[in-house]
C-alpha cells in the first residue's frame, strides 16, 4: 500500500497487509484472545454491578479476576494467570491495537517464519516465561521500594505490542513506513528498524507522565529485553549447532576408510 502527498509518503509492503488467509496459529491465538478478553470484561462488569448496589463509590478499575489477570500478591494461588494473561486486555485502545497487530502483523510473521510452532512459542511460551520473570522481579523489588503495589494487576500481554515490532525490524529492516517531507527540519524517513525504539519511547513516556505505574513500566522494559535478547540467543545457538553438525560429518573422500 502506497500513499503520497506533499507532506508525507506512506509505504507498507503488500505482503504485510495480505490477510486473505490467516495462518493457523495466528487464527487460533486471535480467537482465544477475543474469547478471554470478552470473558474478562463480562466478569468484571458483573462484579461491578453487584458491588455497586452495596457501595455507590466502588471503583471499576480495582475489580480484578486473578485467574486471568496477573496479580503479584495472588500469583501463588492462581498461577494460571501467567499463561492466560497473554490473551487478555482491559483497555479499549490496547484491544484495538493488539487485534489489528495480531491479525495483520501475526499473519505476516507466521507466513515468513513458515511455522505455526514458532508463533506459539513466541507468544505463549516466551510470553509466559516473561510474565514469570516480571512477577519474580516485582516481588523482589517490593522489598526494596514501597512504591511497588502487589495488589494491582500487571499487564501480562505486551508480547504483541512490544515483541512484534522487534520481529518487523528483523524481517523488514530497511523498509520505510513513513517519509515526512515537510517541514524540512522534521523531514525523516521512518523505517521499520526504528519501530521498536519508537514504541518503547511512547510507552515509557505515557507510563511516567500519565499512569505513574512503576511495576507496569518495569513489565514493559522486561518484556522488551526478553523479546529482544532471547530469540537472538536461540538463533545463534541454532546456527552454532548446525555449523557443528555440518563440520562433524565424516568426510567421504575416496582415500578415507569408514569403519
UniProtKB/TrEMBL annotation:
Subcellular localization: Membrane
UniProt-listed SMART domains: DUF1751
InterPro entries registered for this protein in UniProt: TMEM115/Pdh1/Rbl19
Membrane among keywords: yes
A Pfam family of this chain: DUF1751
GO cellular component, one term: membrane
Protein name, UniProt field: YOL107W-like protein
